[in-house]
Amino acid sequence: MCETSSTANLSLTALLPPSALEEPREAAFELVRAALVRANQIPGVRHRLGWYGIHEVVTPDTRPGTLTARLNAMPGVYGLLPLDTCPGPKACFSLCYFPAPDEELLESFSIQAGIEALKPDFMDKVRGFSRHPDLLPLFHMGFIEAHISSTGTGPFLAMTARDRLGWISETGIRVNTPDGEIEAVAPGESDQDLAALDITMPFFRSLAASFSYTLSTAPDRFYTQKRVAVLPSLLCHATLEHRLTLGYFTDNAQPTGFDWEESKEIAWTHGNPLPEPYQDESWWSPHLPGAQNSLDKRAMGITDKPRFILLTGFLGTGKTTFLDHFIQAQTANNSFVAVVQNEIGQKGLDATLLDETYAVTQMDEGCVCCSLAGNLRAALSDIMDRFQPDFVVLETTGLANPANILREIDDLSDLLEFGSVTTLMDSLAAEQTLERFEVARDQVRLADVILLNKCDLAPPHAIERLEQRISGLNPVAAIHKTCHGEIHPAALYGINFRNPPNRPLFNGLGNSLKATHRDDRIETRLMEFSAPLDKEVLITAIEAGGEKILRVKGIVEFNNIQGPMVFQYSPGTCNISPLQAKDTHERFLVVIGQDLDRSFNEDFD
Fold first, then answer.
1. What is the pLDDT of residues 83-109, one digit of tens each?
2. Which fold has domain 307-509?
3. Closest CA to 204 of 151, 265, 283, 257
4. CATH 3.30.1300.10 correct for 522-602
5. Using alpha carbons only, what angle is made at residue 63 by residues 57 and 65, rounded to the nearest 5 degrees?
6. Mind listing the pLDDT tens digit for each residue in 47-88?
7. Residues 159, 92: contact at Cβ < 8 Å?
8. What are the residue boundaries of the structural domains of the chain, listed by start?
9. CA 190 to each of CA 50, 96, 148, 168: distance values in angstroms, whole numbers, following the listed order
């Protein structure tokens, strides 16, 4: 029996908790995910490894490690789906490729795949592709496999893909068009003919390089194999199937379940010349191309502090929508955004995920989103150390007074370069909000950028009157009109984000504005439920509170809907959607309102 490799264990425990290594198959699944997440944490590292970004698909019935990924070299989106059907101890993933709707490669996919790719909601489906099983056979390209032995040797990483992935339509295909039915594929012609190996290889190349980087070692074994593919029918194109396998810390171990009957084409081991035609692949070194100065922003000599934006605005003004557009614009400019959110109330939707200072709730293309739980300085210090963002956006609850946060931000000048207090306002509801709540007025007084959002819903005379009211509270802030929070950041902050904001009021007002939500008699109420609710009774009880009820949100179950639901209410709107995140098994509502009394609780009993 082979002895456990201490070097291998040292590298693996740096990526995985010890408990994960007790079950080799589960550890192999988690190792692939950990390597991808670690490789995408630092923008400089991410781009050097070939990644544009990753997005984890998190649903109650989705296995961890389900994710989409984009590469710098490909315009489409890859989907990695863990499979529980592979025999033996290895972890298997189906690898899909979803082409961009305008990508030339789409012409080589099947007619049905092309129809799906041109639907308006295609990319929305792709981001949660595991929930759409009808997409998987249309866009499947190959397989990714990983294996860690029970003795600690390994891991092995492999890719399997065919030269060509296609089939012939025996009877032909006809499709309906605005001009009538046409013959899209003639009988006996190809409905699909894809160079699957060429599509799969860029993903494997970046994944293998990420393994070498995160394991801090080069592979010591490399195999290539090929065989005639087993075809499901005579209508499929004859093709060869290829497998590439890399081994790390192998101690002469063999990758269990990886061998085919055919002999290997290449069987390379450490100490021999690198095999052709793979000698220039990036996975051969744990150090990134461009030598040591490419490891991260600090190592590359980039010392600029992240630019900081305090994003505020009353409940329901569209802060999150604006933030989505901001992240998209920065991602297109190869900038990375860290978003820190704070919640009011005893429980947030992701409260069970919180650690001592913050929790990473989403890792996405171009951004990381975190929930603040404790000390702001500790959270920001750790976030900047791990992710090295170009921008930090603190998205406050709609009831936060920026003055209270600015006092703490003043002490963070060694970490951040202050950029802006950006306040969003609902053009339709803002006048009434400003009339009722001192916190909302303070959000305007301290802003250097104000966005009058939802301008498409408010009449011009109301917007003009609102601008006059804003000028009375803050005569120096720049005011912009937006719909759906959409505006290019350069229009707000300058091309290089270096234009000094108009903040002459900060010094005078920052210490004098002390209003909080409590001064406006706004309070929160946590309500927990052990049984399903009646939806109509719930909505009636909330609406009975009238203008006192400002926001209701939480996770509940209804007696006529299957599964946990995310419930969100603000005056005039009510949204109920299935819980997509991991189910916490907690059922609760957080009610935010003015002058809440005991009678409100009784309405839910």
1. 988 777 789 999 999 999 889 999 999
2. Rossmann fold (3.40.50)
3. 283
4. no
5. 60
6. 789 988 888 887 767 787 899 999 988 999 999 999 988 777
7. no
8. 6-294, 307-509, 522-602
9. 33, 20, 40, 4
